[in-house]
Amino acid sequence: MLGRLESVETGREGALSAAISDDNTLPDAVTTAVDDDCAGVIRGAAPTLYYTDDAGLLSVALRPPIMPDAFTAWDDRFDIDREWFQPVGRLVFAVVRADVCAVGVYEDGERVDFEGFESSVKSEHSKGGFSQSRFERIRDEQIDEHLDDSADLIETLIEDSSPDRVVLTGEEVIVGELAELPTTPPVPTPGEASRRDRTRVC
Q1: Measuring CA to CA, which residue among 88, 63, 68 is closest to residue 165?
Q2: Selection from 15, 19, 8 nearest residue 33 by Cα
């Protein structure tokens, strides 16, 4: 995908690259280049990197593991730094879902350590009433216990490996709850949602 974007060549100032950190205010260059429908999609994807061309043939929003500072640039090629997408150096990469935790330690792109586990968490309950409330309470307790164990594992691997960077990804609400780990870099905090609303990957 990155190779294809890098292969695009336009006339002078025909390729727009933008790093968008705020979903409320899009850069003027972006709002001028796209219609209202597309602008709404971009806002929903923020924080994101956005690429388009002056002919409207290409329109791509990507969320890399490392978001650069906000910028906009018109050029004859897209502004792509591979390190935004493929971090170098020593890296802890954690994937956490409501019932799964996997954490790898990478050195210049090569995995040098890995630990992970799966917890027993009840599946969704389709009935209503008292039975559902009790079921969901038990499920929430199981998820909370899983998150505590996940946090302990991530913190241990961070302490043991002293990484240059930590990337935390997975189900949105789960990532939001783990983003408070004191040893991880800031992670965008998702909006309020129930645990049943986990759909987007950060």
Answers
A1: 88
A2: 15
Q: Tell me the one-letter amino acid at 83.
A: E
| More reliable by pLDDT, 174 or 13 | 13
**Separation between Cα atoms, residue 199 and residue 146, nearest integer Å:** 19
Q: What is the pLDDT of residues 17-63, one digit of tens each?
A: 999 988 778 999 999 999 989 999 999 999 999 999 999 899 999 99
Q: How confident is the model at residue 137 (pLDDT cuts 50, 70, 90)?
A: confident
Nearest Cα to Cα of residue 181 among 156, 155, 201: 155
Q: Where does residue 159 rank: exposed (0-12), middle (13-18), buried (19+ CB within 10 A)?
A: exposed
Whether residue 47 contacts residue 66, with contact meaning beta carbons closer than 8 Å, is answered with no
Query: What are the pLDDT digits (tens) for 86-98?
Result: 888 999 999 999 8
Residue whose C-alpha is closest to residue 163's, from 201, 101, 112 = 112
Reported pTM: 0.65
Which residue type sits at 39? A
d(CA 60, CA 50): 6
The b/e string for 4-19 (b: 16+ C-beta within 10 A; e otherwise) is ebeebebeeebbbbbb
- The dihedral built from the CA positions of residue 147, 88, 69 and 34, taken in this order, carries a sign that is negative
Rg, Å, the chain Cα set: 20
Is there a contact between 79 and 18 (Cβ–Cβ < 8 Å)?
A: no
Stretch (H or E) spanning 179 = none
